Amino acid sequence: MFGQTLATEILAAEGVSDIVNLTQHPLARINDSYAFCHHGGWYECSMQTHALCVGNQLKPSVPFSMFDYIECNFGNLGVADADNNRLCAANASVSYSKLWSCATGYGPSSGPGMLLASAQLADSLGINSAPTVLLNGQMIGHTLTLKAVCDAYTGEKPPGCQQADAVLAAKKATGPQQCHV
């Protein structure tokens, strides 16, 4: 998720963000009513609780607030934890003191409480790896394409959906892309 992600590209297609309802659920393991994060220990849990608090404080008025906050965090991973959170809070126009209070609080509406609820929901849906993508409630795997979003939308397609067919045609013309390590 470094730099511009596929989700960022999908949302940037003209009009597509208007037809998408993006919900993110951070994953964690549950142990005695506590959430333990998979990859980054306390740092990952801190990022996730902060992101959940941003989403909780800004939705529905800023529908992609949590996504934007997470993108900001991943884009600045070399920055010290507190500085990164302050930078991304300012970018999201969120009071850092309110964000910190939420992210380190107690109870179901706190960041840790929301992380536990998110982990429990993911567990109940059988989701145990990230990213896992659901489109219209159906699990489709680990990736999402602009074409899949546009094909699933039943209303009038926005102009950005025309790009989906053009991108797909261009990829077919150039063949599969190889990643070399």
Describe the structure.
Helix 7 crosses helix 8 (160-174). This protein has one domain: Glutaredoxin, CATH 3.40.30. A hairpin with a 2-residue loop joins strand 1 and strand 2. The protein has a two-stranded antiparallel sheet. It has helices spanning 6-12, 41-58, 65-75, 81-91, 96-103, 111-124, 146-152, 160-174, and strands at residues 29-31, 34-36, 133-135, 138-141. The chain is mainly alpha-helical and 181 residues long. It is built from 8 helices and 4 strands. The two termini are 17 Å apart.
Which key terms come to mind for this protein?
two-stranded antiparallel sheet; Glutaredoxin; globular; 8 helices; single chain; two-stranded antiparallel ribbon; disordered C terminus; 181 residues; 50% helix; mainly alpha
